[in-house]
Amino acid sequence: MINMGPQHPSTHGVFRMRVVFDGEVIIDMEPIFGYLHRGIEKLGEHKTYLQNMPYTDRLDYVASMSNNLAYCLAVEKLAQIEVPERAEYIRIIMAELMRINSHLMAVGFFLNDMGAMATPLMYMYREREKILDLFEMVCGQRLTYNYMRFGGVAQDLPDEFMPALKRFLDEMPGFIDEYDQLLAENEVLLARTKGVGVLTAEQTVNASISGPILRASGVKWDLRKADPYSIYDRFEFDIPTGKNGDNYDRYRQRIEEIRQSVRILRQAMEQVPEGEFRTRIPTPFKPPKGESYGRVEAPKGELGFYLVSDGSAKPYRFKVRAPAFINLTLIREMLVGWKLADAMVTFGSIDICMGEVDR
Amino acid sequence: MTQPLSGSDIAKKIGEKFPDAVTSSDETAVSVQSKHLLEVARFLKENLNLDFLNHITAVDYRDYFEIVYLLTSLKDNHSIVLKTRCDEGDAPSIPSVISLWRGADLQEREIYDLMGISFDGHPNMKRIVLWEGFQGHPLRKSFVLDVPGGGRKDRV
Question: Is there a contact between A326 and B106 (Cβ–Cβ < 8 Å)?
Answer without folding.
Answer: yes
